[in-house]
Structures
1.
Amino acid sequence: MTELRSLSYEEMTDLMQTLGEKAFRAGQVYDWIHKKLIQNYDEMNNIPKSLRQKLSEHTQLHSIKEADRYVSEIDGTTKFLFELFDGNIIETVLMKYHHGNSVCISSQVGCRMGCRFCASTLDGLTRQLSVSELLNQIYYIQKTTGERVSNVVVMGTGEPFDNYENIVKFIKMLTDERGLHISQRNITVSTCGLVPKIYELAEEKLAITLAISLHAPNDELRKQLMPIANKYSIEEILKACDAYIEATGRRITFEYSLVSGVNDSKEQARELCSKLKGKLCHVNLIPVNPIEERDYERSNKESVKDFLSVLERKHINATVRREMGADIQAACGQLRKRYNDEQKGGI
């Protein structure tokens, strides 16, 4: 059955025609869902009861349920665990900055990419999130907090490009002036490097920020950290990034998780510089978040400082990501896995 929240404005108009309703009803219903952020049909109080009945018979309006919430005592970062209509659990993070509220959403239930240092992938992929479920993470937080969400990062559990069509539709609906109208420039989508999808995204001519999870300066090391590197080389990824920059004029962000003794040496920093020289890019250095199931340790402050210094001397734009919510396990997948294990009696 059709998910009402997943329908674009054009699809909503088509639905009204199918239901024998006047076209203006599409705008009313769309406004209730994507601006007023209602969670059930009965909240649409200027919609005739007969139309609400038709909608309930022909569509679904799935809501998400808050299963748990953790608030950092350090910086106020809040991690939400949401239960979906089928009982699956996802996690979403609200981070508050002086420039506005940023929400990091999940794109899948689980993940099949298998990155060695990430908790999201430990139990594999369960299923894709629908457009409705992508939007609802933001809608719930904005409605619950009463504060506008101004920035969205698709960097939580899952590989967004493994759910490509829903992600692109989600972006277009989130930035539509008939909805929350968040600026495309305030949306970041992160991928581990599914090369064909980078080319597809370039053709969309969106103004979003594309982030590439690189994490290594060469293919040999990247294969140890990220199984996807066996399919797509760094050279192929960078070529696709060049095409993206040419098509959009947008700067690429390269994410680089620093793992102690693995990818954090000065030599590796210099090798990374040689790969990125002359590109319109920014490197986001991320001291890795340790997880119980892996023996990786985060780089110490001195190593992080030295790595950053090499990049800066080579005129590569780079920063070290500010850690948010360290005391509430705000890194991808950690709380979801712990919650699921507890529900199963695993710990």
2.
Amino acid sequence: MTTVYIVRHAEAEGNIYRRIHGQYNSNLTEKGLLQVAALEERFRPIHLDAVYSSDLRRCRMTARALYEPKGLPLHLNAGLREMNMGRWEDRPWGEIGRLHPEGIRGFQTCSRSFRAPGGESYVELRARVRDTIFRLAARHEGQTIAVSTHYIALRAALSAFWGFDVEEIPTRVPMSDNTAVSCVQIEGREAKVLFACDNSHLTEELSTLNGQKWKKDGSIAAPESNLWYRPWDPEGERELYLRFRRETWEQVHPGVPFDAEGFYRDAARCAAQDPWAVVCAMQGDAVAGLLQMDLERYREEGAGFIFFYYMTPQAREQGLGIQLLGQAISTFRPLGRTALRLRCAPDNALGLPFYLHHGFADIGTAQTEPVELRLLEKRID
């Protein structure tokens, strides 16, 4: 008999940016790293003979809590990967929910017929992960091992160990928090689940699942908690852009003249580089924010530049603003950029704490007229 601890990876970009990250290779967040530290403490007294992980980065980084303190090697296994979401990979949940509501329903209900375009079915996923864990257990008969895997992959495997059909997953398999631990005893092709999806090593502040708005809304792609994006129209939405810009400027720089024409020229120039360089963030049918990116500035230094990052007053304090950061990363990472940069006034009481909380660091002064701004950078490689 082999004892197998199954761990879901720590909080990763897709969890907070609300993007579909099946086999997209994303990073952990700042909170995710704290969860890894808590997981390490939980496993400190537990003996392990071997540690395996999905080969995706978020699982490898989580597995450090399991193998490094015990001086073990890490074994990578693609059979532990998350569900392949095909052409939906790295798309916003809000976009797919809007364009493919039936597909989202099939995904959320774990329908046997669900398959994202070019992706994998629940039946295929469950067989892959179940058989991978059985093979690893057979390799370590009489020992204790740990595997680092993903949310849907974990729930599918548990359904197999309990003998449930995949369509019973939503009602009979518990949701798993990031770094939650399950434990299974395996002998041959028989499995006994000792406990499932336990996150007792996390404080309430470190829990991701309990704080996610989509869970309260009842749908993983609910329009209330998932933004989608469309290109800004430089001609038809000129006044919209200037209204957002003026509001921000006058709040942060009271008494300093507002250069409407200069700001509009910059926005039109960025949009001319690529229509998706300036996007409206949409909450349902309403404009909830605007993201302006300059695809050329800092290109030679390997960085992407966020020119303007804005949420409307109505959309603030809903936990939505972080999703614009995900859109920026998904724009610049495929271009080979390894960092994001933006400018922020040192007395911006809303913006500066937000950026610092989400991984930006102050790297110097941005020389601009007529005000001095701080230049912030966040690594995305």
3.
Amino acid sequence: MTATVIDGKAFAARVRAQVAAHVARLRDEHGLVPGLAVVLVGEDPASQVYVRNKGTQTVEAGMQSFEYRLPAETSEADLLALIARLNTDPAVHGILVQLPLPAHLDSDLVINAIDPAKDVDGFHISNVGLLGTGQKAMVPCTPLGCLMMLRDHHGSLAGLNAVVVGRSNIVGKPMVQLLLGDSCTVTIAHSRTKDLGAVCRGADILVAAVGRPEMITGDMIRPGATVIDVGINRVERNGRMCLVGDVDHATAAAVAGAITPVPGGVGPMTIACLLANTLTACCRANGLPEPEGLTA
């Protein structure tokens, strides 16, 4: 068996096209232009790349992009004051503070200062609680992207056994809530799970988000299962750095029915879903119907 490759890059392009089409209708029919504000504190190289890509794709989707690049020594008071201004700016529908923040800044305090309705990362404690209780929330982008790809591949997820390996607040825990919302039977596992292989082999859907390179191998996967590899790990191979996932792709692809690659799988969906969340936030703020197929 050779697994079908779930092409996240192509899927993300379709999502961005859907977003752009909806943004054009908002502008033409209602005079509205969704706006996304991204705040970067410091000069972390990876964060700078992410912010640049987000800004480019925001503009390409027809939205307004607002970027705030602050020095690493920015005080907590100044950062909170900027967030307070963005919370009240009617042109801004989504606010994202790029993580990680410099060590002297309290990430939880900063994230929870964002208006929950503009929290397009879905990290605010109010959105976490809403998602956990099955209510309308802003959903974290990476789990939302995984859910979209699973729905596209399977159609209905009802009754399927899903295993999520990883318990982070950013991916693992919200992924569990989203799968439960689609009526999966869900198990959450992690690096300390006893007989992790046996747990994983019970999955029709296996989501690997544990942050350990190639931890999930082919012998841990049920034949025909769908594998979503969220991991992005830099490892050295033959004297050069390369990207690998949390899944050993070669052995897993020989067993699974479908699998996402790294790179080119879940990664491109994260920014696409950020744009979708910004569009959703704009629609909600103006009492308009939410875009179909772009929310949980």
4.
Amino acid sequence: MASQNPTVAAEAVATPKKKKEEKISNVRGIRNAFFVIIACAIAAVCIFLFAMGAPGNFEGNDPAGHPINLAGTVYKGGFIVPILMTLFLTVIVLSIERWIAISSASGKGNTTKFVSDVKADLAMNNIDAAMQRCKDQKGSVAAVIYSTLVKYKEMDANTTLSKEQKLTTLRNEVEEATALEMPALSQNLPIVATLTTLGTLVGLLGTVMGMIKSFQALATSGSPDSTELSTGISEALVNTAFGIATGAFAVISYNFFTNKIDNLTYAIDEIGFSIVATFAATHN
């Protein structure tokens, strides 16, 4: 019966600890990007039909006529345009969402300074001060470090495990806490990565369809229909531009936020190593 008490005690400590981690982390973000895509699709169709397709954008107030401004020219891009606009708006919205989420994950203060301050507390073996810094900082890095420091104090009070077992437990705690935080940071980024290729491919599809219309106009008997020819060229160029813009913005966004996540991961690894090293140096 006595051998079961440490396990029960550990479980009792683990439950409130997880609640504290959630409060410290507080990573915000959109859980289901499907609704974002639907909302962007509705917005894209409305902009395409009612803004770009407004009669005032064409000669004689006739959408079937020649466009007199950029909005009318984009409207001539055909039905592929609202699809590309949906992809482009989705990239923008998810990029803003990731900015908010990763900013909240970074915490209230500068992450580099926070790591430096916690390492200084560890050097003085002031664990309580380091834990308080985590509570003040908040964010994913602070949540992982706080969880590890709680385990640090638990191992410090443990008299049954060997030093190697305690060090292994601390390393496992860092890995587990990191594994719980990282999915919240990279959420929705796979969609942005997919749009990198999808936007370019859909734009290419619109380009090909526009060129087909242009060649059909050239193939008509007698003189080619200038209206059909210009419509086909407009469709090709507009879709090319939208596809390139969507793909380029998605690439920039994905690489930017991936780099941000890598920096947070590096900070966690750095301070996690310091915690384990401090425990190894101060315990026999």
